[in-house]
Amino acid sequence: MNKIHLNFSFIVSRVAIMQVSLPALKAFESAARLGSFKAAAAELSISPTAVSHHINKLEHRLNVTLFTRSARKVTLTELGKELAVATSQGFQSIRAAIEKITEKDKQINVTTTSSFAALVLIPALQAFYTLYPESKVNITSGESIDTNNFTLPIRLGETDKQSSMDIIKVEQFNLFCTAHAATQFRQAEQITIYTTDWKNSSLPSVPLQAWLELNGLQNKQVQVKHFDQELFGIQQALLENAYVFCSRTLTQGYLKAGVLTELNTHAICSELCYYIANKAMHLSRQNFMFIEWLEKLLKE
């Protein structure tokens, strides 16, 4: 047995340095497992002659006999048995790795702000799953950027500081409220507007004052209240039948559902945008489908 082990070690070393083809090893593994060149040919969708040719070439390369041939069957030699164990384990490991990679490729990991997750992504996920039922989207909300190349970091940032290739939506702001509050806007002497004072102080301010001037409302009595996330301002405006000055992106779901109304005022462009940091580095097949779907969603 020691002699066989030494001989097989020699074979393995020879395989490592010789140009043994993968099809030849696959043909050998299949024939060894099934005990038949014909059965191996059927499994591999090639001819029995091709299987025989691969194995003959492998034996010639290694200068050993792997099978004992007879008229009706083939039988592994002792060296053939050892190589069969090694190739079986090797191909099983390869199959397991491919399955793991394929399964991982179906999962899309996204990190984004809490507001974008709650108001845009999560409500729209069912539509994505309808198009791509085998995919799985894992969303983590937070303000820090994930630098993992397998994770899509969707962030809010300053437009001028981002690559144009990374930007997925430039933000516009307007005033939103319930349908009832919309009818009272012009007549009300004083109104309460909820808006955002960003937790990230490096972000440009919400353009509320510029919006008031654009719409000739700079003299209107306005009480401004702030949250550090747009999500909270929207929720509070709904609770109090008040007004919220925020991005069009985050309100599109509420608008479609008829929960919010966009006032008949001029929206204003901001210095803010949603972007995917280093987008070109994240274009796996699944991520590409998700980004393409997301960009269409944000254009609606």
Structural summary, described in words:
The chain has eleven helices and eleven strands. The model is unreliable at 1-6 (pLDDT under 50). 49% of the residues lie in helices and 22% in strands. β7 (190-196), α8 and β8 form a beta-alpha-beta unit. With 300 residues, it is an alpha/beta fold. The strands form two sheets. Strands 3, 4, 5, 6, 7, 8, 9, 10 and 11 form a nine-stranded mixed sheet that branches.
Percentage of residues in strands? 15-25%
Distance between the termini: 72 Å
Helix/strand order, N-terminal first: HHHHEEHEHEEEHEHEHEHEEH
Total individual domains: 2
CATH topology of the largest domain: D-Maltodextrin-Binding Protein, domain 2
Assign the structural class, choosing from mainly alpha, mainly beta, alpha/beta, alpha+beta, or little secondary structure.
alpha/beta
Largest sheet: 9 strands, mixed
Average of pLDDT? 87
